[in-house]
Amino acid sequence: MVLNHLKKGESIDRQSPIPMYYQIMNQLREKISAGEYTVDSALPPERELVESYQVSRMTIRQAISELVNEGILVRRRGIGTFVAPPKLEQPLNSLTSFTEDMAQRGMKAGSRIVSFKEIVPDPAIRKTLGLSAEDKVFECVRLRLANEEPMALETTSLIASLCPGLQAEVLENQSLYKVLTERWGIQLDYATQSLEPILAPPYEAALLHVAPGSPLLLIHRVTYDQNGWAFEHVKSLYRGDRYKFVTELHRKAGKL
Fold first, then answer.
1. In whole angstroms, what is the distance from residue 153 CA to residue 201 CA?
2. Which of the ends of the chain has fewer CB neighbours closer than 10 A, N or C?
3. Whole-model pTM?
4. Per-residue pLDDT tens for 93-122?
5. 80 near 43, Cβ under 8 Å?
6. Contact (CB, 8 A) for 227 and 185
7. 3-state SS of the chain: helix, strand, coil percent to 5?
8. What does DSSP assign to residue 15?
9. Stretch (H or E) spanning 13
10. At 59, phi and psi to the nearest 5?
């Protein structure tokens, strides 16, 4: 469905210090928030937007590009620009698996094994997991899917001696944490993690079905078992156009 909620001379303050593309971007965002533009609806062609706002094609393209970068709009090659589905909110203060997260949202979780091998980890991971120079980890790279759509690329390093005999087939479309608990008695207790934005490298972008240079959210997590021992290091790349991370903050008593 194509959106036709535009009229010639949409209100742009040409005397304002706020750039015209930014004003247009905010107007389109407000219409989406208000439900005037619905999910999966196509924006009008650029020429119609140019005529309606009485601005250059470059100004319209800049406004649309900003909304695409924010994940509010999505470009579909050869078809047009559409209103994107709302981003998935991921809490930062709970330790759940991807499979559990998707189940709570009523979505079907899936995964595709990109690679699986037993290796001697690099020095940084070896130090994080408290391993000797000879100890090995199972390194599993999985593309995480929600309703068959790529959402994240996850590289997991597990101490091999804690889960002997682990095979790639076991992790296909199953919760890793459930497998670790049921087969080897490893109970999750807590984790530490960091989050930072990056731009998608070409290889990762192809796997995640986004353009190279698209925003991604990089998470490094170290997971600890019931005895307080680190057993897992995870590097995750989440699509910035499909995810936003939220947390709850509390002010300590007595602070001014």
1. 12
2. C
3. 0.71
4. 666 667 666 766 677 778 899 999 999 999
5. yes
6. no
7. 30, 30, 40
8. T
9. none
10. -65, -45
